[in-house]
């Protein structure tokens, strides 16, 4: 199933996407819901952010190529994680598919995308095992972990480098049925492919992360875990359109525009 | 005004505390509300977590003594911040006044408190100035930034060291009227004072943080900013009761108990 949060004729609700049609749902996918008879053409609705997570988890380094490229640039040896560890991103930065990423006035030209698979939690879960970990996963969406690399280098933490308003596009919808091992993530800038990797070739996969996190954390419906990215991005500039295309989910597309001051 | 989220007779709502009495309020302090005629004795109600912030901001290093003690322990020179930078904590870790901090089964004895002033945002705000920054502050509460120092040292980030379930007690209520310059933070373990500092003697105060954060972030009603702590904590053990007492706000009290496995 493909769950879309959308607005049509001033009403925001959940819907189910089949082909080019959205069927309005009463309720929400994490609780009680039922399909109505109301439908819209997908092209006629405003796609909204699927949700604001209670806790917004994000894996920093989870693909070998990304790690090596970052180390090469810094002139260091890649420090490959020996166990799954998690970071966080900030809710203020989330925007929907087709909304603009605003490059802050004081930013440098080092604005990069990171195309990521996003795991959406569907059930309260603690102390998961390898055998039952995937039961708490509701579905998958796409994230763009936009980063300002000069700030990332200069600051003590990732606050403005990764969490400036609009730096976390997520969407366009949540897909519940995917084949992780057949997925590829392709990234395009202004229609031209600039990166491609096998989505599930992670240093640590979804199951090890769910098991490790749930040793310490209660996962809640609507929490998200961004799973990291591979490869590197060119510098993005005012007007660039970035598409992140993951097999079986869809395309997350956002235009980058410079803040007007 | 002193805003309390509480449960009585199975109903959870906001209330206003005057002396030892809570008056139930319809609505909530960030939107429309009105006082009802229903009152309870404060001692008869269950005190709830005031709110779950959309974005959970937390200042890492903001008091000189804390910085120096941490540097001394690490055998390094204190690296005093030259500008306000922010970190994050995780919503899963929040608990209310009088709820138990559960020390995870795998934790070492290096469990520490950090008593912090918490700023609660009341209005949507971006690009604040020194002159208008304080207008977006709704009030103040108290936080205990519980930390497992061995994990803090061993891990790449602060995930389980500071965000394990129950590691973020916050409360007991939100006080809107305080005199920042007359506040002291006192911390007691099992009734014995173990730390005391002037709450507002920060390296960077509330105004510089609000101005800097709002250059990049839209602050939202219910967001919180934990302002950092001074001094150091003894190692806490199973059964210890920690009280954080801030002048004009109140006392946040939590018992620490070892996880049963």
UniProtKB/TrEMBL annotation, chains A, B:
Positions of the Rv2993c-like N-terminal domain: 1-47
GO term, biological process aspect, one: small molecule metabolic process
Annotated SUPFAM superfamilies: FAH
Claim: Metal-binding is one of the keywords in the record: yes
Superkingdom of this protein's organism: Bacteria
Matching Pfam families: FAA_hydrolase, Rv2993c-like_N
UniProt xrefs under Gene3D superfamilies: FAH, Fumarylacetoacetase-like, C-terminal domain
Keywords: Metal-binding
The protein's name in its UniProt record: 2-keto-4-pentenoate hydratase/2-oxohepta-3-ene-1,7-dioic acid hydratase in catechol pathway
Organism of derivation: Bradyrhizobium elkanii
């Amino acid at each position: 199933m493909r769950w879309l949060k959308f607005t049509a004729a001033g009403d925001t609700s959940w819907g189910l996407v089949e082909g080019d049609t959205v069927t309005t749902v009463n309720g929400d996918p994490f609780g009680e819901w039922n399909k109505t008879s109301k439908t819209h053409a997908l092209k006629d609705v405003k796609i909204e952010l699927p949700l604001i997570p209670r806790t917004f988890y994000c894996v920093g380094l989870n693909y070998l190529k990304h790690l090596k490229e970052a180390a090469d640039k810094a002139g260091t040896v890649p420090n490959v994680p020996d166990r799954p560890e998690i970071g966080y991103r900030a809710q203020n930065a989330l925007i929907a598919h087709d909304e603009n990423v605003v490059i802050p006035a004081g930013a440098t030209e080092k604005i990069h995308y990171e195309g990521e698979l996003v795991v959406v939690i569907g059930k309260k879960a603690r102390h998961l095992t390898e055998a039952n970990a995937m039961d708490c996963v509701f579905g998958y969406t796409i994230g763009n972990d936009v980063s300002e690399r000069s700030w990332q280098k200069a600051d003590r933490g990732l606050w403005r480098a990764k969490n400036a308003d609009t730096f976390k596009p997520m969407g366009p919808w949540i897909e519940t049925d995917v084949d992780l091992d057949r997925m590829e993530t392709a990234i395009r800038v202004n229609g031209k492919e600039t990166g491609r990797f096998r989505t599930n070739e992670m240093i640590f996969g979804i199951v090890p992360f769910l098991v490790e996190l749930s040793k310490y954390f209660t996962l809640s419906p609507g929490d998200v875990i961004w799973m990291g990215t591979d490869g590197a991005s060119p510098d993005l500039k005012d007007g660039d359109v970035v598409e992140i295309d993951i097999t079986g989910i869809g395309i997350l597309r956002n235009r980058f525009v410079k803040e007007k001051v």
